[in-house]
Write a structure and sequence with these properties.
The protein is 49% helix and 19% strand. The protein is α/β, with parallel strands linked by helices. It has one domain: Rossmann fold.
């Protein structure tokens, strides 16, 4: 699939996963995320691309302790807090507070398509290309990409509009994501839509 097909607004639905301050404060690429996310939100609005905001909260684990332990292990690789930390948190709020998605959903399942309400909403758009942004690249976005691909959609991850706790995990996840989906960044969209 070429960039022309992937960026045709009439075929695109945007899913924004877990975009909240509690995750953002710990990710490694705050500045890149803010710039990319602000751009895609304004571009999607301009091109009438619908956006679904999906929060995956309190994921079901057979053992809550095991789930917490795995999460803490992932966070051990976090980059140290930068001097611009508070400024980035403020910018994140400014971008996300002025943004209203077309639909909002909450789920406790990492497989978002097992929620009938979410699956029906995605299907009802009749759009096959699902652009994905949000957190975290190495778990929720990686798994969502594979699930969408296996359900007949074309998942496209906007890499700089996603992030996770460490650069190493981020790039490893993007490599895996490229096996079942497409990986582009906001500059690809700027080149296609602004020039």
């Amino acid at each position: 699939m070429n960039i022309e097909n992937l960026t045709n607004p009439e075929n695109i639905l945007h899913i924004s996963l877990n975009v909240n301050k509690s995750i953002f404060k710990d990710v490694f690429s705050k500045m890149e995320f803010i710039g990319a996310y602000e751009y895609i939100l304004s571009a999607f609005k301009r091109y009438n691309i619908p956006t679904m905001n999906i929060a995956i909260e309190n994921m079901d684990h057979l053992s809550k302790e095991y789930g917490a332990e795995k999460h803490n292990r992932r966070k051990r690789n976090m980059a140290p807090v930068s001097p611009q930390h508070e400024m980035f948190l403020k910018q994140f709020s400014e971008v996300t507070d002025h943004y209203e998605p077309d639909l909002r959903f909450k789920t406790n399942k990492i497989d978002i398509l097992t929620e009938p309400e979410i699956f029906d909403a995605i299907k009802s758009t009749n759009r096959k290309i699902i652009m994905i942004s949000g957190f975290t690249t190495d778990i929720e976005i990686l798994i969502t990409t594979a699930i969408l691909y296996n359900s007949g959609f074309i998942p496209v991850v906007i890499s700089d509009a996603t992030s996770t706790y460490s650069e190493r995990m981020f790039f490893t996840a993007l490599e895996f994501i490229s096996m079942t989906g497409e990986v582009i960044d906001s500059r690809d969209l700027i080149k296609k839509w602004e020039y």
